[in-house]
Amino acid sequence: MFKAKAYSAASKTSPLVSAQIPRREPTERDVQIEILFCGICHSDLHYARDEWHDVMPAIYPCVPGHEIVGRVAKVGSAVTKFNAGDLVGVGCMVDADLTCPNCREGLEQFCPSQVLTYGGPDKHGTAPVTYGGYSDSIVVDEHFVLHIPANLDLAGAAPLLCAGITTYSPLRHWGVGKGKKVGIVGLGGLGHMGVKFAHAFGAHTVVFTTSPHKKEDALRLGADEVVISKNADEMQKHAGSFDFILDAVAAPHDINAYINLLARDGNITMVGAPEKPLPVAVFGLIMGRRSFSGSAIGGIAETQEMLDFCGTHNITADVEVIPIQKVNEAYERMTKSDVKYRFSIDMASLKSE
Ligand code: NAP
Ligand code: ZN
User: Fold this and answer.
1) Residues near ligand 1 with C-beta < 6 Å?
2) Was domain 2-162+318-352 assigned CATH 3.90.180.10?
3) b or e along 218-229 (b: 16 or more beta carbons within 10 Å of the residue's beta carbon)?
4) Other CB atoms within 10 Å distance of the CB of residue 352
5) Most buried one in 170, 185, 224, 336, CB count within 10 A?
6) Of the ligands numbered here, which is closest to the C-alpha atom of 213?
7) What pLDDT was estimated at residue 103?
8) For the segment 117-175, what is each residue's pLDDT rounded down to a tens digit?
9) Which fold has domain 164-294?
10) What is the percent of the chain with per-residue pLDDT over 70, rounded to a whole number?
11) Domain limits, the chain
């Protein structure tokens, strides 16, 4: 066991503060990573403030962070895919049984024994729960470690590990591409990656935003059209026309307004995870055989596929790089939709703690 530097919250009302946490010495299957950047996902805030209490009660102390990139410091004797010095990433999962039907299909995110990067049961007994990436190092089973393409900017690559795969996976699953009209709801961390991917896949991409000042950015990111979702007339113009809509909104909102924009057999998928249930008017689904579904991150093989796609097309997140000392301020700005479009923590800033 060794000590790592980290930022940790002691309760749902406590700010994140400097702390020391235990990390295990790498076992034979493990990769020890020096963390260089970690993105700030809205899920980090939901969890640290225990907003998902009813489905996933938070356990404290809590070290969030699941958009991790870094350099391999050390590998265990049985590790085959990585060497010291490699640029690597870790996303939302650090363990799963790897034998269940979900794991065998490459869908580790649905494994009943899946362990999340933070707040999950620590099978190694190093700490009561797993601690995430707001830290200078992490030790992870090599199955859950990804290769980062060498051409990508590392601060911008970190958010690919969650925001990237969470939008790439449902867009692929629902066949988004040329000839499809696709909506992306909410231009935040996830939403702006959704726009980049939908555009790269060749779809006609429409952004729905509550923030009129984000319009120019949406077009620059690859949107063909931008709709200010508070404007009912603008919404109505698109009624019944979408093949697919990806909803990446973090707060309660009117989902029925979007269901009505779907064409026959259209689908709207939630990746946003508001703390309260969303009321659904079923007639919107019945009329037009429309469907409403959800999606969680993506499996490990698909995450690598997404990273390689990003390497080929030079896609990264648009980030505001911050020192870890600004993490609490970043959380406040996230609650006001004031992020362009992801915070990425430069972990060199932990050295002074
Ligand atoms: P984020 O950066 O804070 O972006 C959320 C965006 O939602 C905001 O920028 C804003 O966009 C819009 N929004 C916020 N409040 C709103 C409101 N009251 N009404 C309508 N729109 C509102 O968050 P994120 O990191 O992208 O995460 C988004 C959600 O996805 C979170 O709930 C997060 O927990 C969840 N998530 C799910 C998964 C998964 O696997 N399913 C993975 C990661 C994250 P505009 O300004 O454009 O309106
Ligand atoms: Zn996330």
Assistant:
1) 41-43, 46, 162-163, 166, 186-191, 209-211, 214, 248-251, 253, 271-273, 295-297, 334, 337, 339
2) yes
3) beebbbbbbbeb
4) 10
5) 185
6) 1
7) 98
8) 999 999 999 999 999 999 999 999 999 999 999 999 999 999 999 999 999 999 999 99
9) Rossmann fold (3.40.50)
10) 100
11) 2-162+318-352, 164-294
* pLDDT for the residue 144: 98
pTM above 0.85, yes or no: yes
Give the integer Cα–Cα distance in Å for 273 and 232. 24
Ligand lying nearest the CA atom of residue 47:
1
> Can you tell me the distance from the alpha carbon of 59 to that of 56, in angstroms, rounded to the nearest whole number?
9
Listed residue (249, 277, 244) closest to 259, CA to CA:
244
Distance CA(272)–CA(163), nearest Å, equals 11
Residue 130 tokens, joined? 């797993």
Atom of ligand 1 nearest to the CA of 250: 32
- Torsion, Cα 184 206 40 152, to 10 degrees, reads 120
Strands (E), the chain: 2-8, 17-23, 30-40, 68-75, 87-90, 93-95, 115-116, 137-141, 146-147, 181-185, 204-209, 225-228, 242-247, 262-270, 291-294, 319-323, 342-346
